[in-house]
Amino acid sequence: MKILVCITHVPDTTSKIQFTADNTKFDTTGVQFIIGPYDDYALARAVELRDQTGGKLTVLNVGESETEPTLRKALAIGADEAIRVNSNPKDSFFVSKQIAHYAKEGGYDLILMGRESIDFNGGMVHGMVGELLGMPSFSPVMKLDVDGTKVTMAREIEGGKETLEANLPLIAGCQEPIAEWKIPNMRGIMSARTKPLNVVEAVSDETQAVATSYELPPAKGAVKLIDKDNVAELVKLLKNEAKVL
Amino acid sequence: MSILVYIEQSEGKVKKTSLEAVSFAAALAAQTGEGDVVAVALGSIDDQELATVGTAGAAKVLHAGDSRLDAGLIQAHASAIAQAFSKVGAKTLVLAKSSLGDAVAARLAIKLNAGLVSNVVALPDTTSGYKVKRSIFTGKAFAETELTTENKILAVKKNSIDLKTDGAPASVESFEVELADSDFASKITATERATGEVLLPEADIVVSGGRGMKGAENWGMLEELAKTLGAATGCSKPVSDIGWRPHHEHVGQTGVKVAPSLYIAIGISGAIQHLAGVNSSKCIVVINKDPEAPFFKAADYGIVGDAFEVVPKLTEALKAEL
Ligand SMILES: Cc1cc2nc3c(=O)[nH]c(=O)nc-3n(C[C@H](O)[C@H](O)[C@H](O)COP(=O)(O)OP(=O)(O)OC[C@H]3O[C@@H](n4cnc5c(N)ncnc54)[C@H](O)[C@@H]3O)c2cc1C
Ligand SMILES: Nc1ncnc2c1ncn2[C@@H]1O[C@H](COP(=O)(O)O)[C@@H](O)[C@H]1O
Question: Would you indicate the residue range of the signal peptide (chain A) (predicted)?
Answer without folding.
Answer: none
